[in-house]
Design brief:
Elements (H helix, E strand, L loop, with lengths): L3 H17 L2 E8 L4 E8 L7 H16 L5 E4 L5
Parallel strand pairs: 2-3
Antiparallel strand pairs: 1-2
């Protein structure tokens, strides 16, 4: 099982890079299969490159630093 605090700590390391471009990230959930749900905020929300930010940035770094992370997905919008 992945410790949500470990994921949050790594996101804190990533956050300054996103904030430098006017964006941010919020941890929504970590499930038992290692899937991390995040919400991109600010300039990152709706950005055409947000899928690249998730896959090549956030997901890659989380997989490197937190054992058990398998995938990072955008959180489903709340209804």
């Amino acid at each position: 099982m992945i410790d949500k605090n470990d994921v949050a700590a790594v996101l804190e390391l990533i956050r300054p890079s996103l904030q430098a471009d006017g964006g941010d990230v919020r941890l929504v959930d970590v499930n038992d299969d290692g899937v991390v749900s995040v919400e991109l905020q600010g300039a990152c929300q709706g950005c055409p490159l947000s899928s690249m930010t998730l896959a090549n940035g956030i997901e890659r770094i989380l997989k490197e630093r937190v054992p058990g992370v398998t995938h990072v997905v955008p959180a489903m919008p709340e209804l």
